[in-house]
Amino acid sequence: MNYGTDQLLNLLRAVRRRRQMLLTLRGVVMCLIVGAAVLLTAGWLADRYRHSESMLLPLRLSALLILGVALTLFLIKPLMKRISDTQLARLIEERFPNLHDRLVTAVEFSGEGENRASGAIVNRLRLDADRAAADVNLDAVIARRRVAAYGGAALGCLLMFVGVLKWGPDTLFRGVAQLVAPSNLASSAVNARSIIAKPGTARIPKGSDQQITASLVNFDAETVTVFARQLVTVEGAGSSSDDQQGQWNGQVMEPAKEKSDFELFLFNLQQPTEYFVEANGVRSETFRLDIID
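The chain above was modelled as a monomer; its predicted structure follows.
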């Protein structure tokens, strides 16, 4: 499309670029707001139900679904919607009523309407529109401060989300870490924190008492808890047998001699037992105590 000296064409291109930037930043802000709310809520739920592995997958899928919908509604769909040169010209003339449809008329007659009028008339319309476009202030059409405001809002949302994770409740960080990383990585996500539990996996006589010790690595905690559950062996057809898992039960450990060490006895173990140790959201591996008759 030819607009004579291209003043009108350059103006339309500039308005289109700024509009695209405005829509992009606005969509990013909305996606960040929705994403932060979804991740923090799902993270809180993930930490609350951290001992239920079956809850993490639905939480991840729900968070991804909501984020995908937000991305589609607020970013992809607005950017895919095409706007014609005529619509852009009308947008400009809404801000400058004194143009009296000169830009719109030039755009329309420079397109399919060019064949409906003589070349001399079309050229005069183009030249007149170019002179009018040269006096249009782009900031009066789409203010630069609106673009900057959305950019600042996007940065503010991102910094606020990071700040909540860093300085907010530990439950939020632990939960978000569990959502985005496997449980064995989430439990040691910060400063390589870990818990060494002993005796680990072992075989013990039936009815005996077993001491569990835990050493905290790279962090301190006031409360350290052992979670244990019995595995009830059920005989199946023939010689096969299956282990049915019970509920996890937590017991607070007692401080040992070293500041970072804790201990607890599991008494009168009659069935195979699984256990792990947790403190401040950091979780050890899950170990098993097998029973020897």
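The first strand starts at residue 194 and ends at 198.
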